[in-house]
UniProtKB/TrEMBL annotation:
Keyword annotations: ATP-binding, Nucleotide-binding
Pfam family, one: ABC_tran
Matches recorded under InterPro entries: AAA+_ATPase, ABC_transporter-like_ATP-bd, ABC_transporter-like_CS, P-loop_NTPase
The protein's name: ABC-2 type transport system ATP-binding protein
The organism's place on the tree of life at top rank: Bacteria
Source organism per UniProt: Marinirhabdus gelatinilytica
Domain ABC transporter: 2-234
GO molecular function terms noted in the UniProt entry: ATP binding; ATP hydrolysis activity
Amino acid sequence: MIEICNLSKKYKGAENLSVKELNLTVNNQEIFGLLGPNGAGKTTLIAMLSSLIQPTSGSFSINGLTFQQHKNKLKQTIGIVPQEYALYPTLTAYENLHYFGSMYGLHGEHLKSLIHTHLEHLGLAKFANKRINTFSGGMKRRVNLIASILHDPKVLFLDEPTVGVDVQSKNVIIEHLKELNNDGTTIIYTSHHLNEAEAFCHRVAIIDHGNIIVKGEPKALIASQEGAHNLEDVFLQLTGKALRDHA
Ligand SMILES: Nc1ncnc2c1ncn2[C@@H]1O[C@H](COP(=O)(O)OP(=O)(O)OP(=O)(O)O)[C@@H](O)[C@H]1O
């Protein structure tokens, strides 16, 4: 279970809080979607929960573990799929995955067999020995995903895992995430694909200006908004139609 209590983040030099006293509980084995316009605070929230950046105030725990008290155990418990590709372009898919696996203490035949099993599941077996810089966006996203799940995390954070990929890759990624979830993994993901989130998530939260404006099961949220036929209608009704450009 993830328990978030009054979590806030103000970046150095920034005028406003990017995440504002946010409270949320995510249950074990839930697929939870964080949705919101550009700049809403989704990445900042995920980055704090993944211990990539420090909160300004507030606290959170993951399966009872806190960064302050159980740093190493927490690292083994979570997997992180960042928005940017965290891969070495001149290394092969296998070499990249071997590197990331060893960072989690995996080695030898066990690691080798894990890498091959995951590559097979994500349709990449025949590209194991090709360099990442020859891969399409969809292939890189799938390798990015494998790199974060080799150590079998109990909780997986994904920041827009299907951005910029074709429908086929998106389908393989979502199906693989559902399998992981069936096997017990809790999933927290951000996305701008509202149709995808509606079908994929058990619950979602719509975030705007650093805080949750509504949360619940997609069907319940749609039913609760007059005239809404899908999650996109709910999203636009609650966050408005104005553009969120910022520089
Ligand atoms: N390193 C940083 N320094 C200062 N401000 C930042 C930094 N990273 C993000 N911000 C600001 O924090 C706010 C939230 O940004 P964040 O990237 O978390 O939003 P987001 O919901 O993930 O947006 P997107 O959908 O565009 O990825 C924005 O106003 C952004 O400009």
